[in-house]
Design goal:
Structural class: alpha+beta
Shape: elongated
Order of helices and strands: HHEHHEEEHE
Number of helices: 5
């Protein structure tokens, strides 16, 4: 009996790779651009930012506002809430309130959300925020001490048993 002939596998030759144009390195690109000089306003901005970070680190603020900026919060408009809050604080010259962000608080259908914490008081979660609502919360709760009940979801911390 005759044995079947072995099938040979023919490999196709590899295609030569096209030469990629070399991009300028970041260092070379930066070296070719003129150096920007700092102005007094730039230094003042850097100083103010450093002071605000020191307040956060030293916990010297009278209150802390956390804007929840998980994916759901951002999709619902949390960036607008953060912008409105910071803008209102600048207008009112508020320097002793800590503003921070966090991820999702777990109530995605109630975003955008923020939590206000004032010393010696329970935290308050505010939901369904708009830029106007966060301005009202800053004025009435953070600066005035009165909870804005229409916007509040809960008062107090969550407890695990």
């Amino acid at each position: 009996m005759a044995m079947p002939a072995k099938k040979s596998v023919v490999k196709k030759p590899a295609k030569p790779k096209a030469a990629k144009p070399k991009a300028k390195s970041a260092a070379k690109a930066a070296a070719s651009e003129p150096i920007k000089k700092l102005r007094i306003q730039d230094l003042e901005r850097i100083r103010d930012k450093a002071r605000s970070l020191a307040t956060i680190r030293n916990s010297e603020g009278r209150a802390k506002v956390t804007v929840h900026m998980g994916t759901c919060g951002i999709a619902a408009g949390a960036r607008d809430i953060m912008d409105a809050l910071l803008d209102e604080m600048r207008k009112r010259d508020v320097n002793d309130v800590i503003v921070t962000t966090s991820g999702c608080a777990g109530f995605c259908n109630r975003e955008p959300m923020a939590t206000v914490e004032i010393k010696d008081q329970p935290p308050v979660k505010y939901v369904d925020l708009t830029p106007d609502k966060i301005r009202k919360i800053l004025a009435e709760h953070v600066l005035g001490g009165q909870i804005v009940a229409k916007c509040a979801l809960a008062v107090g911390s969550e407890t695990l048993y």
